[in-house]
Write a structure and sequence with these properties.
By secondary structure, the protein is α/β, with parallel strands linked by helices. It has helices spanning 2-11, 30-43, 67-77, 97-111, 128-139, 164-180, and strands at 21-25, 47-52, 85-89, 118-124, 144-150.
């Protein structure tokens, strides 16, 4: 039981750093995108950057073609100031989608006028530790990376094993994190 109680908190890591850029993974549910606005305001950030590759469903029907763009449009619909917002789409990737987003961000930052020494990555629950690992490897040593995990609303994170959604999310992210530890993400 001790391991079960500690698995979700281990994965849903919160370890922010002093940063003036908040990077939001665009695939997050709308309630997490909305919560990122509060983090932006309380964290004193200069810019919010959304990341993410092409939509996996509805691409041909959607006005916005990437998760980065749809997250940015959602933020604007929630009255987020467009001048503080940047969408950085990633290319299509069959595997290693988080790495593709991190690499696209690194490439965009290398050509932008922003001087970035540190970012906080805003992601979702048990995906946080894996995303943090990948973004750190891709952006290091030039950029420090912190992480903030949005809490799931579709299951109780403290009793994740009592919900099929919690079990699927936590177990699959446990396996994915173990896998991610063996890959060199520095592309």
């Amino acid at each position: 039981m001790l391991t079960i109680n500690h698995l979700h908190p281990f994965l849903a890591l919160n370890s922010p750093v002093a940063a003036d850029i908040l990077v939001v993974e665009g695939w997050l549910p709308d309630y997490a995108i909305k919560a990122s606005i509060d983090e932006f305001k309380t964290g004193g950030y200069r810019k919010l950057i959304t990341t993410g590759g092409p939509l996996s469903k509805g691409y041909y029907l959607a006005e916005y073609k990437t998760f980065a763009e749809i997250a940015a449009a959602t933020l604007i619909a929630l009255n987020f100031e467009p001048d503080n917002l940047i969408a950085v789409p990633a290319p299509a990737a069959i595997k290693h989608r988080t790495q593709a987003s991190a690499v696209a961000l690194r490439q965009w930052l290398s050509t932008s006028d922003l001087e970035v020494k540190a970012i906080n990555l805003y992601t979702f629950g048990p995906h946080a530790r894996r995303s943090w690992l990948i973004f750190k490897q891709v952006l290091a040593p030039e950029i420090r990376v912190g992480v903030i995990a949005a809490q799931p609303l579709d299951y109780d994170a403290n009793n994740w094993w009592q919900s099929s959604t919690g079990v699927r999310s936590t177990i699959s992210e446990s396996i994915a994190y173990a896998y991610a530890r063996f890959i060199d993400w520095k592309a």
